[in-house]
Amino acid sequence: MKVKELGHVVLYVADLQRSVAFYRDVLGWEALGDVRLGAPAAAFSSGRTHHELLLIEVGADAQPIPGGRRLGMYHFGLKVGDSDDELRDALRAVQEAGVTVVGASDHTVTHSLYIHDPDGNEIELYIDVPDVDWEDPALVLSPIKPLHL
After folding, report:
1. What is the pLDDT of residue 20?
2. Where are the domains of the chain?
3. CATH number for region 1-60
4. According to the model, what pLDDT value does residue 7 have?
């Protein structure tokens, strides 16, 4: 077997409407409407496929994501463009929405901002650096540097 691509991400959320507003209004995903899975849910797409993100409401009394070192998901990445200008636009958009940027990294092959969604899931907003050779392991595995936009 060979995985061909990551198809979608499913997240449990405390408040579906709050998370729908974040992913639709702040990050610009296209909301595909409500989904009935035995619990309130909503699906989103960037237009690449039928859905790339599914949110399922589990309620405010669900156990929050623990801080610090833990097993499980660290973050997921969303490509927001192909240039630092587009990453600057993303930075302005999240800041105008009151979202805190928790990190900014120059990975040589990508430039990345890190934010949290309303439930504490970490999201990497990134661009692929133009004209970088992704086949060069020395570049892909370069030490992480601070990003200055």
Report:
1. 97
2. 1-60, 74-149
3. 3.10.180.10
4. 93
